[in-house]
Amino acid sequence: MSVQRYRDALKVREGYWFAPKLFGWGATPVTWQGWLSVLLFVLAVVAVLHWAPSQFVRLGVTGPMLALFIWFTWTKTDGGFRWRWGPDRD
Questions:
Q1: How buried is 53 (Cβ within 10 angstroms: 0-12 exposed, 13-18 middle, 19+ buried)?
Q2: Residue ranges per domain, the chain?
Q3: Predicted confidence pLDDT, tens digits, the chain (90 residues)
């Protein structure tokens, strides 16, 4: 299997920020917008975990944040989420 085939599998159409993972379920950021959204999500979670007054509030805020981020990632992924075992075959 060529390296070029793996590189081509991580290319996305315009307007998408994430590519489906090559192995497993989910997506990986492949544009600067995707990487920025991941960074902002991580910073938001760290801020909530640091400044939330109780464990109940931490869970009550980070749970919906995670669900919203997964939904957002799904909408910005070129090819959607499904289980994969390597690049799609043509």
A1: exposed
A2: 3-85
A3: 566 666 666 777 788 889 888 888 889 999 999 999 999 999 999 999 999 899 888 889 999 999 999 999 999 998 888 888 877 665
pLDDT digits (tens, 9 = 90+) for 31-51: 999 999 999 999 999 999 999
Strand partners, 85: 23
Q: How far apart are CA 84 and CA 75, in angstroms?
A: 18
Please identify which residue in the block is written with the tokens 């315009």. 14
- What residues contact 37, with CB distance under 8 A and at least 6 apart? 17, 29, 69, 72, 73, 76
